[in-house]
Amino acid sequence: MNITLAQAEKAIAAAKEKAIAIDTKMNIAVVDSGANLVAFGRMDGAWLGSTDIAIKKAETARYFDMNSGSIGELSQPGGSLFNIEHSNNGLITFPGGIPIKNKQDEIIGAIGVSGSSVENDHTVAEAGASAI
Amino acid sequence: MNITLAQAEKAIAAAKEKAIAIDTKMNIAVVDSGANLVAFGRMDGAWLGSTDIAIKKAETARYFDMNSGSIGELSQPGGSLFNIEHSNNGLITFPGGIPIKNKQDEIIGAIGVSGSSVENDHTVAEAGASAI
Amino acid sequence: MNITLAQAEKAIAAAKEKAIAIDTKMNIAVVDSGANLVAFGRMDGAWLGSTDIAIKKAETARYFDMNSGSIGELSQPGGSLFNIEHSNNGLITFPGGIPIKNKQDEIIGAIGVSGSSVENDHTVAEAGASAI
Amino acid sequence: MNITLAQAEKAIAAAKEKAIAIDTKMNIAVVDSGANLVAFGRMDGAWLGSTDIAIKKAETARYFDMNSGSIGELSQPGGSLFNIEHSNNGLITFPGGIPIKNKQDEIIGAIGVSGSSVENDHTVAEAGASAI
Question: Which InterPro entries match (chains A, B, C, D) (predicted)?
Answer without folding.
Answer: GlcG_carb_metab_protein, PduO/GlcC-like, PduO/GlcC-like_sf
